[in-house]
User: Fold this.
Amino acid sequence: MNPTKPRLYPRGADLLHSPLLNKGTGFTEAEREALDLRGLLPSRVATLAQQEERVLRNVRGQPTALSKYRYLTGLLDRNTTLFYRLVIDNLDEIMPIIYTPTVGQACQQYGHVFRQARGLFISINDRGHVVDILRNWPYTDVRIIVVTDGERILGLGDLGANGMGIPIGKLALYTACAGVHPASCLPITLDVGTNNQALLDDPLYIGLAQKRERGEAYDAFVEEFILAVQYLYPRAIVQFEDFGNMNAFRLLRKYRDRICTFDDDIQGTASVALAGVYSALRLTGGRLADQRFLFLGAGEAGIGIGDLIVTALENEGLSESEARRCCWFVDSKGLVVASRSDLAEHKRPFAHDHAFLPDLQAAVEALKPTALIGVSGVGNTFTQPIVEAMARLNPRPIIFALSNPTSKAECTAEQAYTWTEGRAVFASGSPFDPVTYAGKTFVSGQGNNAYIFPGVGLGIIASGATRITDDMFYAAAKTLAGLVSEDDLALGRIYPALDQIRQVSAHIGAAVAAVAYAHGLATMPEPEDLFKAVRGQMYDPVYESYV
Assistant:
């Protein structure tokens, strides 16, 4: 069903300026006559495939990744159907442009290249009027909201209102990867200021030129936003995205049992990482309970992965304390241990009794991990001695350099394979080109959350689930790992090829919906064939006839 299809279409130039309805040169002769489009378009009618060929040539003709991003953003603002047809048919090529790594650069320059608003910017000065601002959004059947306050954009830090590129990019992937209709998606930035002095000094910065609001005023603003969303869009998922550590964990705890919400940086990252671990074990052998995980970085991503690994180990029979002892963390000050008095609350469950160690290399030598997981947001921290130590300790070391964008990756694919003599099982957050070592070509896996969150959202929508649970992300991880083929593993790739992602999302959607039905969280009637029902709901970008 198309939630945007009106009984009476706009006509003439108004129709051409409606991106969800516009077909450009794809309007037929009959449509041009009936909808007052004569003379407003060139004479020749083009098929969607011909239009796609034209725009793909234009994308490829752009000199830089950022100029490609700008071109594609302009296309999305003109012709939504054509944009998504292009993305779906060329996902390997286009996804790194509309999301990581290029979206990071786009956010850094967002104010300087700003052309047209997309989504809603709600500032803390709008307190008392948030529901009125939400009413300005032109679509009423909102099912997914991705919201950020811009404090921790990828590994780039506080970008304030410039972080809007992330919700826009995430929602583009909901549509491209899982077929959530674009009219059901709403990107939002909560502008509470920024502590980035360069932005405060920049006359072209688009957000509030003030320091970040904290404390009670911040919490009251977020609460008003949540209540307004519940009032206007009671069926919508609220996805928290790129909030700082000091807010992300506590906002998730505060709202996860009240509304249908999750934090992708915590839970989505955890699910895709756990899926990668399950796939890696098919190459290395052994059980999950036999592994020792060492994390560089103890923020949202790291603790989220650790928590989901604990859930998985508990499902395999370990006690919580036994499961937590499988996960160790190194933060900016050294090994997270019980004797430290400077630990934030979210780190304490993983603070074990052990002598303090000052850095990652010392931790590797002492703890002898089987898997090294980088979620630090600091590039080049998996140095050659550290990676070589992992190779000395393990026949097939698991090395995940998950920080985004590419410049923040803890090591490159080439470094991981070269420093381990081709024995590493490697995955990264941003894409890397294939690597040839000793005559063998390795195609590393990209542990991108796009494998997880679109399918989770699809499953929630399909089932009408009222809550999103850790069991759903565990089910998503197991489903994703099960879709990795032997051919994928032979290449060293521990995730399916990106061109399979819509099928992957459908399977994950069905698995998530099954959890919702099993736990009494679903509000939609349960279909006989859950996968078929979920797959049948997915939006496919094709032109509809208007006459």
